[in-house]
Design brief:
Elements (H helix, E strand, L loop, with lengths): L1 H24 L4 H15 L11 H21 L3 H11 L4 H25 L5 H22 L6 H22 L16 H6 L1 H14 L4 H10 L5 H28 L12 H18 L3 H5 L1 H17 L1
């Protein structure tokens, strides 16, 4: 009997060992993320309108909106702040608080999407390693400057529109210099070019910390025009840099709240709907970029979304 029990135990252990590779491969499939999102929604349903001050209807609306935003961000490389600030102000969140909520949401979406790009070999690791330290300097300066901008909500929106307008012009200019799509990792800018790009990285990250405008909005056209990087590779590399930048922003926020210099922004309950949505959307966006037809109109989609955000804030 003991021998039979040991045999059964060995068979079960063998079956479990065979399942581990499948578990590790499952995150690569979109169905895994959609199933996880469904389970999350079912669990959260019992807390809506009770522990979480969010109605079922509003949760569904914001959640599917987040899926769309996450997909477009990972597909075009457009910083989610450009899309979230107009949306959050529409949901009656103050601009100064919308910045933090926007960045917290981006961590979820860009985290899964950026790691997917990294594991697929689409990120230019040497360029990212050269740019990230400068990005952290820039976002720290922007974060500290935001303390002096409290109470100037309308001014923040005007600055936001001006920066978005500049990015729109830069992206339209990049259409005149089409760059072939190369999915290998052979294009690496020399160190001297990377060093000359530091001011762009610092300035773009400064506005990330101040307005939640993604530094990827600046870095993608810069990498495409100045570093002659294929657009798909520029998107992947810029989004990875952006992910590390906003992760550091979260650390700065936690430290400032812990030290009593700031408070958690109003409306953080929306994160229950936005974070889960952008995770699924991010997985959709990373798959859209692999389809040649969608990739051909990547820049055009970037321009349309950027222009729509500007119009929404001006109206």
């Amino acid at each position: 009997m003991k021998g039979e029990k040991r045999l059964v135990a060995v068979i079960r252990m063998t079956e479990l060992m065979k399942m581990w590779p499948l578990l590790f491969k499952s995150p690569k499939h979109l169905g895994f993320w959609m199933l996880t999102d469904t389970v999350y929604f079912f669990f959260l349903f019992f807390f809506l309108n009770t522990s979480i001050p969010l109605s079922f209807t509003k949760f569904i609306f914001v959640h599917f909106l987040a899926i769309g935003v996450g997909a477009m961000v990972m597909f075009t490389g457009l910083g989610a702040g450009i899309l979230w600030i107009p949306v959050l102000t529409f949901l009656e969140i103050r601009p100064s608080e919308a910045v933090a909520i926007s960045i917290f949401t981006q961590i979820a979406g860009k985290g899964t999407g950026s790691l997917t790009y990294l594991f697929n070999g689409m990120v230019d690791v040497k360029t990212a390693a050269a740019f990230i330290p400068m990005a952290l300097v820039g976002v720290t300066l922007g974060f500290l400057s935001s303390f002096y901008m409290r109470g100037y909500e309308q001014l923040l929106l005007y600055i936001f529109v001006l920066i978005a307008g500049y990015l729109l012009i830069r992206t339209i200019q990049s259409l005149k210099s089409p760059i072939p799509v190369i999915k290998t990792s052979s294009v690496i800018p020399p160190p001297i070019i990377s060093a000359g790009s530091y001011p762009v990285v610092i300035l773009s990250s400064f506005f990330t910390g101040l307005l939640s405008i993604g530094n990827s909005d600046w870095l993608i056209p810069h990498m495409a025009l100045k570093l002659k990087m294929p657009i798909s590779r520029a998107v992947a590399t810029s989004l990875f840099i952006m992910f590390v930048t906003i992760l550091f922003y979260l650390v700065l926020t936690c430290i400032s709240v812990w030290q009593g210099y700031a408070f958690w922004p109003h409306g953080t309950y929306l994160l229950f709907a936005t974070c889960s949505g952008v995770i699924v959307g991010g997985q959709i966006g990373t798959r859209l970029i692999r389809i040649p037809w969608f990739e051909r109109y990547q820049k055009h989609t970037f321009i349309v979304l950027l222009g729509a955000s500007i119009v929404r804030l001006l109206c």
